[in-house]
Write a structure and sequence with these properties.
Largest sheet of chain A: 8 strands, mixed
Helix content of chain A: 25-40%
Oligomer: homodimer
Largest interface: A-B, 74 and 75 residues
Number of helices of chain A: 13
CATH topology of the largest domain in chain A: FAD/NAD(P)-binding domain
Structural class of chain A: alpha/beta
Distance between the termini of chain A: 82 Å
Number of strands of chain A: 25
Shape of chain A: globular
CATH superfamily of the largest domain in chain A: FAD/NAD(P)-binding domain
CATH class of the largest domain in chain A: Alpha Beta
CATH architecture of the largest domain in chain A: 3-Layer(bba) Sandwich
Chain lengths: 474, 474
């Protein structure tokens, strides 16, 4: 037995320590094979939130829920259905039957696949700028450290996580689908799970303090709320003031004096960066008010406003965007800059933008950039145009009367400052606009400089762009 | 009674005659309001093929058929359904309840809405380069003529059109859905109707002389054939040699000595330009071997290789692409050049490309440009990459094992010579690639110069582009 020897163990030294096996796990590359690397992760599953409890499995639930909902909503298209059943257990087992082995094999590979890489499956905390101490007392040191420790679901004081009060981590692994579920929250996680659970047949009530999607364009938020309300109950402007659990499940008392009885509760009221668990303040790093680590344009962690040599952060623990594609881009910049340090080459700035934000709920949302109000507040002479799906042939085919695309455009330059799409395929309809904005193309000539196949849904984008050009010519 | 006076009637003179109320109908604009214009169309419906019997109504049928098929195919996603019914009559009435009034009001507006525009609802034929004679004997002359007379479905000699042998013109207006339908043809029209009819519950057999989609990439064609075969019967390499109609419908004898019994037949073996009906050869215009009118880069009609002053053609009657978005672009060029003639300004060339080609069947297809074989035959040092949907998170969500995106790229420049996508949302996933190719962007930096929201289907495109860059760097 080693007894208390862990306390006196000498430090283990690496060339590079990567904290978090999400996007950070992509950093070890052949170019870095000369480095002695430790990957540190204490997650329930290996591979980060996106793979195990986030983007990827949710979309595998979204699809069957969509199929069922599309049939239910297709009466207006002339389709009627008899009994329609989707098995929670079958989908769950299919999803995790696929995800879990990927996670496990990724872990096994890191465990034993590469001689230069060690895996540390322990909780760690910073004990100096370049030093970590593990829960068991191991001391790890490296000249280069990458902090990709991610974020975790916030807990509600009145409803601590437990068997029937769960976060998105457990939301897809439920033994069976509860009949009545409260989903607390107004952002993407709450919206996606409300759609999934209701699609699978649960009676869902979404509760939120403020209107849903408060950060998005008002019309997007309002349309989401009215469309979502066809499939689940949405109750906003309320907080849970008290929760009691009895034989028939949870009784939630709300701030408007109403109560609601449910079998289970998904708490999706935001995520907090894991900097506290890593005790990054102990290393003296700079932090934002919300706990995120401050980084410079090179993803270097700041301390007293100055970059700490060799220490980088990426993803949710430092980014204002809790998005996997942003974490991946951060990781690419970090990987490039680790190599640059090795080679004494200049560092690369992370300048990529704009950042698309997508919601795979019912309806779907795809947006980037500013709302009109934000653009004007930022001093732009901006205007917005709105193209309804229903004004295009594809919208006719869908019998769609609510979906739309809004563009926010700078008048004198024609620059796309923002795009806001709600409706079927919004996340992919956004891409031509992301591409234009990313490569400096304005709205001038963008619609007429390329073919848009008729009568595809992309005509919605084409027509929005034409409207923007007309507005500029006024 | 006017008796035979039509024969001796004097010519009516216009500033501009537009033949065909499809894309040509968009040409009259405020800028041309000083011209005395005749619009000539003898179509069953006003507004051209796309609106009345083409792209627009088909997509309104495609959608409910998709909903039904998605449920049938969703067993692999964990969805099971009881009786599912889609009413042909309800969809048909919804579709044409929407289309026909648009067509009628478009006609009424042209009939009486503008003092400078007359509508001539007669068959016409060219009797000189700038002269038309109507079926009733009216003689119409104009210094400017736009020929947008479109195309019509080809007939099969062995199966002339009739009550139960129909073209796409009638394919959506059927009183009721026949139980057993033969769809003859291997292109987009046959593919879309085979998917619609089978989605609505008919027993469909698609027959074609050659493999389906012979003009497309071989893998696209093969994948379409195998995927389509899940929903309807596909029998290629055969011709109908004899057809007899008895009490139990049609018995079609095929060239492989087999026979097939069906209630009705859709003949979709291609479309021929209406130049013969307009007797454009009588005006001495130049024609392609397939009957299309030859035009120059300004859409001016050629006669002995020289443009005929003031005579333009657009759309199916002159274009190698029988596509509405191409006809619309042709019409914009013609409109611009009509104005240029008025103003003695230089003409505009029609240089827009590449041309996307989309199929809204099951599965969907979206392609542009060259296959690898075509690119190499054209002398390019080209390669292709293939990204399967199944290699992305979205593909996992779909449990997709057959869909893919192929890119054909010029090695030394990185230029996108072609893109070939088959699978869900192919027509809209194509757009970022069309945009890049249209604006001269190569594959270099295209994936990493923009965000692709995770885990949207657009990651298929992102990954294909990354593969192309890797291949160039090899």
């Amino acid at each position: 037995m080693t007894g208390n020897t862990t306390q006196t163990q000498s430090a283990e030294t690496f060339d590079l320590i990567i904290i978090g096996a999400g996007s950070g796990n992509s950093i070890p590359s052949p170019a870095l094979s000369g480095l002695k690397i430790a990957i540190v992760d204490d997650g329930r599953w290996f591979g980060g939130t996106c793979l195990n409890a986030g983007c990827i499995p949710t979309k595998m639930f979204v699809r069957p829920a969509d199929v069922v909902r599309n049939v239910r909503e297709a009466q207006r298209l002339g389709v009627s259905s008899g009994d329609l059943d989707v098995s929670w257990e079958a989908v769950r087992d299919r999803v995790f039957g696929r995800i879990d082995p990927i996670s496990a094999s990724g872990e096994a590979y890191r465990e034993s696949g590469e001689p230069n890489i060690s895996l540390v499956r322990e909780t760690v905390r910073f004990t100096d700028t370049h030093e970590l101490t593990t829960a068991s007392g191991r001391v790890l040191r490296a000249a280069k450290i990458v902090i990709g420790g991610g974020s975790r679901a916030r807990e509600l004081e009145v409803l601590p996580f437990g068997d029937t009060v769960f976060s998105s981590d457990d939301a897809m692994r439920l033994e069976s689908l509860p009949n009545r579920i409260a989903v607390i929250g107004g952002g993407v996680v709450a919206a996606e799970f409300a759609a999934i659970y209701s699609g699978f047949g649960a009676e869902v009530t979404q509760l939120n303090r403020s209107p849903l999607f408060r950060g998005l364009d008002d019309d997007i938020a309002a349309t989401f709320t009215s469309a979502g309300s066809r499939n689940w109950r949405i109750h906003t402007g309320v907080e849970v003031t008290e929760a009691s659990h009895g034989e028939s499940g949870w009784t939630l008392s709300l701030s408007d004096a109403s109560t609601i009885d449910v079998d289970a509760v998904l708490v999706a009221v935001g995520r907090q960066p894991n900097s506290d668990r890593l005790d990054t303040p102990a290393a003296g790093f700079d932090h934002h008010d919300d706990g995120r680590i401050q980084v410079d344009a090179y993803q270097q962690v700041l301390r007293n406003g100055e970059p700490v040599e060799g220490v980088f952060a990426l993803g949710d623990i430092s980014s204002p965007h809790q998005l996997k594609h942003v974490a991946n881009q951060d990781a690419r910049v970090v990987a490039s800059n680790l190599l640059a340090l090795e080679q004494d080459a200049p560092l690369t700035e992370n300048t990529l933008g704009p950042v698309p934000y997508t919601v795979f709920s019912a309806p779907e949302i795809g947006v980037f950039g500013s709302t009109l109000e934000e653009a004007q507040r930022d001093g732009h002479d901006a205007f917005e145009v709105r193209q309804d799906y229903g004004g295009t042939a594809w919208g006719w085919a869908l019998e769609d009367e609510e979906s739309f695309c809004k563009l926010v455009v700078e008048r004198d330059t024609g620059k796309l400052l923002g795009a806001h799409i709600i409706g079927p395929d919004a996340p992919i309809l956004l891409q031509p606009l992301v591409q234009a904005a990313s490569f400096g193309q304005t709205v001038h000539g963008l619609a007429r400089g390329q073919y848009w196949p008729h009568p595809a849904a992309t005509e919605i984008i084409e027509n929005a762009l034409l409207q923007a050009e007309e507005e500029i010519q006024k």
